[in-house]
């Protein structure tokens, strides 16, 4: 007798069926990612739109930024552009992508540039990628573009490499939601040549860019980040396609311990990158000797920011009010309670004398745990 494939014949839950139906109704999302401005993401999007239009596909521009690049601006011609929506803020009128107009127009495909853009207050959504999610829910296909430095989890790496703190960022889950992530890659030498020819920025900005963000070392490091990000994305998609994706959290659980210092968000991002590589669950712990209600407003606000970042990464945030003499005891208790396999800690702020008198948190955790790896992340130097 032929054996049934139980995976094919298992009765799906109503929730699973509903999720599948919603996924089928959703538009197809392609994201072009590059290492830096000027690699050709917007140019490639526009080329794709013209090719599809010649095939009879109704392709329109929701929002494209040409940055005064002649070759890019030339490709806008011949494509319908959905007019921006004017929003008044502090007495100034600014234009934002008109999501409702795009949905009402209902094209087959819409181009949306600058995915990490923050919308003007008063817009329906805070960020442009959220606008794209609304458009996709209406069954409209989307082509988008973003640079690697705008991905949340690499923020600290980018700042360390380039010295630039990128303020507009998107959650890593955005790349996971996309149906396709395509790398637009050029060498640092080619990108510098484009910059010198005036194809990236206006003339008065070229020299400053060459000596700051667009140095060969910076561009090489950003290119490597982009290559790795897309390679990891390809690996994950292959695993899902082949049905061999390891269930999340079955082997590893990562615990990140944060305190009120400037290193906390860096630790959370580092923990997420470890967890994402290992397909592990991520938990973030903050231990305080003061209850949350009695904390200073600035400290409560900071905890709110950590919770928001954790929500972006799909991590569980844990706040513990502990009266124990040693914080390390609360950390080890939490690790044992949740079956943690790896702990991420910041470099100790204690002086050598304090460690002699009070003991090292790291040594204490190592003494009271078994089979848990510790990662010590260096602190930011002033």
From TrEMBL:
<dbReference type="InterPro" id="IPR052023">
    <property type="entry name" value="Histidine_kinase_KdpD"/>
</dbReference>
<feature type="domain" description="Signal transduction histidine kinase osmosensitive K+ channel sensor N-terminal">
    <location>
        <begin position="25"/>
        <end position="234"/>
    </location>
</feature>
<keyword id="KW-0808">Transferase</keyword>
<dbReference type="GO" id="GO:0005737">
    <property type="term" value="C:cytoplasm"/>
</dbReference>
<keyword id="KW-0407">Ion channel</keyword>
<dbReference type="Pfam" id="PF00582">
    <property type="entry name" value="Usp"/>
</dbReference>
<dbReference type="GO" id="GO:0005886">
    <property type="term" value="C:plasma membrane"/>
</dbReference>
<keyword id="KW-0406">Ion transport</keyword>
<dbReference type="GO" id="GO:0000155">
    <property type="term" value="F:phosphorelay sensor kinase activity"/>
</dbReference>
<dbReference type="InterPro" id="IPR003852">
    <property type="entry name" value="Sig_transdc_His_kinase_KdpD_N"/>
</dbReference>
<keyword id="KW-0813">Transport</keyword>
<keyword id="KW-0902">Two-component regulatory system</keyword>
<dbReference type="GO" id="GO:0034220">
    <property type="term" value="P:monoatomic ion transmembrane transport"/>
</dbReference>
<keyword id="KW-0418">Kinase</keyword>
<dbReference type="InterPro" id="IPR027417">
    <property type="entry name" value="P-loop_NTPase"/>
</dbReference>
<dbReference type="Pfam" id="PF02702">
    <property type="entry name" value="KdpD"/>
</dbReference>
<protein>
    <submittedName>
        <fullName>Osmosensitive K+ channel histidine kinase KdpD</fullName>
    </submittedName>
</protein>
<feature type="domain" description="UspA">
    <location>
        <begin position="252"/>
        <end position="370"/>
    </location>
</feature>
<dbReference type="InterPro" id="IPR006016">
    <property type="entry name" value="UspA"/>
</dbReference>
<dbReference type="InterPro" id="IPR014729">
    <property type="entry name" value="Rossmann-like_a/b/a_fold"/>
</dbReference>
